[in-house]
Amino acid sequence: MNADSDEVTDRSIDATEPLLRLRGMSAGYGGVAVVHDLDLHVGAGEVVALLGANGAGKTTTLLTVSGLLQRLAGELTVLGVEPPMGGRFAREKVALALVRKGLAYVPEDRALFFGLSGREHLRLAARRGDGEAIELALEPFPALAAIIDRRAGLLSGGEQQMLAIARALATRPRLLLIDEMTLGLAPIIVEQLLPRVAATARSTGVGMLLVEQHVKAVLTVADRAYVMVQGRIATSGQASEMNADSQELAARYLGAIPDRHQAGPSVNLSESSSPEGTTPAERREDGGDASG
Amino acid sequence: MAHYLQLSLTGLGAGAVVAVLAIGLVLTFRASNVVNLAHAAMGTYIAYVYYGLRNFNVASTQKGGNLVLPVFGVPGVVHLIDRPTVVTALAIALVVAALVGALVYLLVFRALRNAPPLARLVASLGLFLYLQAVMELRAHDIGAGAATLPLTSLLPNGVVRLGSVVVPTASFVLAGLAVTVAVVLGAVFRYTRFGLSTRAAAESEKGAILIGVSPDRVGLLNWIIASVLAGGAMIFVAGITSQLNPTQSSLLVVPALAAALLARLDSFAMATFAGLAIGVTQSGVATFQSQAAWLPSWLPNDGLRQALPVLLILVAITIRGAHLPTRASLVDSRLPVAPVPRRPWLWIPLLSGAAVVALYTLDAQWRLAIVVSVIAALIALSCVVVTGYVGQISLALYAFAGLAAFATAKLELAGVGFPWAPLVAVILTVVVGILFGLPAVRVRGMTLAVATIAAAVAIEQLVFNSPALNGLSGVPNPQLFGSNLGFLAPGAANFRPAFGVVAVVVLAASMLAVANLRRSPTGLRWLAVRSNERAAAAAGINVGSTKLSAFAASSLFAGLGGALLAYELPALSPQQFLVVGALAVLALTYLGGIATLSGALIAGFLASGGVLTRIQGGAAADTTTQYALSGILLILVAAFYPDGLSMAVRRAITRLHSVWLRGVRSRGAT
């Protein structure tokens, strides 16, 4: 595969550069890659789901995109920035620079400030003097507005999750990453939260990448989805089509831990060589993989 | 009564200094998760800068205006301006304070923000040792003659009369300044964006980064504020004491830590109140002791004043079961590696044998060095057990060793014979060790570290400083079955090898015991408690008794070391067991490897007056420089080798081994 020519043709096809683009990216911990060769992109106003069984590498992918983890190889472009690799204090600097560019990330552990009130969270997240951003952030969560002066440590799990998302929205992001938004939440809250957040993204032109275990719920709101197996993207496609096929999707990729020898990632990759509904660029790349 | 009131109010001044120091400790803890033992030392350096600038006499030709530099290898002072005014000198000193705060953060604690708590503590210890050594040297450069600098007060000299009570105005001024600082900082932290950012970064660094707040910048600003406050406090300390002394002034951090802990390292108001209360209580207690004739005569003069407030806070913290707000960081901090000793039954007897051979072949100076190292290793071993294996940072171990030494000497001088005197002394030490371990059942981490410093200070002030214990000498040589096991002998026979053999045997037996304990269920319980107390409790481990067992074991080894010291030293004096010594023990053990047997041996090897000193050629030429160097070394090890030197060596051996194996395999394959 010729990476250079790929890049050139790619630019010519995509007149508008996506908010997030991963090309053959690998990342991991302590120099050992746990996600390999990822190709993924998110455009403005697009809601993209990242699915996979436990340990598939979804959180690692989000951490790398956020800058909190350095990639080990490949290309990564976030909001037009290519985070550098290496350097002792680079991680924090990279993450901060990306936040200023308009990246917001809601991590799995929410990373709230338990001693601060909800309002203080939003005040810190909003740019100086941007009171409007606080109102905007609270819009999807009327329940949260009522308890906004309470300390975050006193909120319930669901309320904390709402606050974490509201805090991310208050930074007026252009690209929003949410890890396990529905973790530990009641099904009824999941049903309310996902569509609301997705609607906010579409109305404001924010690109969203959602990591989810609630496959059915997320596929009803997402535009596209990627499925990760053992650190590689096994398949991708339109969310609506995957949703129609969700039984098979679950059985094939998200069910029991696949046997390493019989259903390794390479097998899955070849199976996904011509999924319907992928973008032209992806189809070409996948075809290249299969032929190469 | 009025008399007491008067003296108590006079204590407000000292209390204000403690309060401002405590506020600074709260700031740096919240900003970068460091309980900075060197906080008062940093302030003391700034006070030296101020007095270096102002040290001139209008009548004489002295010009003053010299800036004291805190770096080795450059000129000690740089002349800035002739005869600066108070305001100019104060302004320059506080600017220097801001720079020092920034430098200390950027060079030392920034890299350690995500290091284990112990590494951060040890780094601040390194800074403490370094600054103290620098000040010892610089005091000469600014014309103070001795290290102790005579001061002229910055504060008004007048008095305030409240009826029959007369109190210096300075006390009220200082107390007012402390309260103002607390109120202003409280408002800043509540209402400003900077304050919110600091609180946010303290709760979750990750969360702060994700909304564009840089924990690094927040940390830097808070270190600058804290350093300026510490500098100001120590400059004004002249209002109370008229002298500045590198060690005494730097140790003001102990009451300040007590006040900060009472405030849970969180509340400025509480820290200020506790600081003022400490000052007032100390002043009142001093009056009480000077007047109460019924107090026993062995009580040291200044004992109650120094020890009582600290002890009260120790009790308060223990009863409350305080835990510090755990400050979340970006990365989970890792504990030092605690490997199972490899083949202890092989290498410990081999090393002991080598030591015995050395004792009988080398000259007297070498024999002394070996015995000093062996005893230091024994005390370091107690540190390995309680801090390395169970994760309880105890700074009272050296005081325990001192207790055993004094008890042994007292008993021997009272006529109790050889095996019994040290035996009783060691049992007594274990009992005291368990007693002082009781707080550990309820508190942990840095709180415990400070509680144990407080305990060590209390033992030092109440027991060691007693006139009854000053200069104990003439402890008879131990005799067993008619053979002389003593160390001291007249003439060339001095430093007898027989005693060295006893010390080596005690150390070897202790190390084998620790090696076995590490592998036993007790050792597993220790490590379980170290990594997570809640998880250990959930697995059915009695956390309290597990900790106490470690405290008992560690005070046993410290006690054995102390008992040996009673026979090794020609005379015992309180100066040999100061708190600074306890800090050095922890520092050396950390250098060697806090959770390894060989770490204790390395600590013994490095100990002052031990084998390393002997290799360097006897008496260390310049102990001050050595202190400064060890301070820097300590910071470097904390930053880059948190597992200590022994693990660095062990890893290197493992790497060589695997390279060798690969070589063998590749040769086999071809």
Task: Describe this entry's structure for a reader.
Chain A: One of its GO terms (molecular function) is branched-chain amino acid transmembrane transporter activity. Chain A: Residues 20-255 form the ABC transporter domain. Chain A: It holds the Pfam family ABC_tran. Chain A: Belongs to the ABC transporter superfamily. The complex is a heterodimer of chains A (292) and B (670). With 292 residues, chain A is α/β, with parallel strands linked by helices. Chain A has 2 domains: 3-102 and 179-191 and 209-291, Rossmann fold, CATH 3.40.50; 105-172, no CATH class. Chain A has helices spanning 3-13, 58-66, 90-101, 118-125, 131-138, 142-146, 157-170, 187-204, 215-221, 239-244, 246-254, 265-271, 280-291; strands at 20-29, 32-42, 47-52, 71-78, 103-106, 175-179, 207-211, 224-229, 232-238. Chain A has a 6-stranded mixed β-sheet with strand order 5-6-7-3-8-9, sandwiched between helices. In chain A, β6, α8 (187-204) and β7 (207-211) form a beta-alpha-beta unit. Chain A is globular and about 45 Å long. Chain A starts with a helix and ends with a helix. Residues 1-15 and 256-292 of chain A have low confidence and may be disordered. Chain B is built from 26 helices and 10 strands. Mean pLDDT of chain B is 82; it is low at 324-332. Chain B is mainly α and 670 residues long. Chain B folds into 2 domains: 2-287, no CATH class; 346-578, no CATH class. The longest helix of chain B is centred in the N-terminal third of the chain and has 31 residues, at 2-32. Chain B has a two-stranded antiparallel sheet. The chains are: A alpha/beta (292), B mainly alpha (670). Chains A and B meet through α3, β5, α4 and α7 of A and α6 and α7 of B.
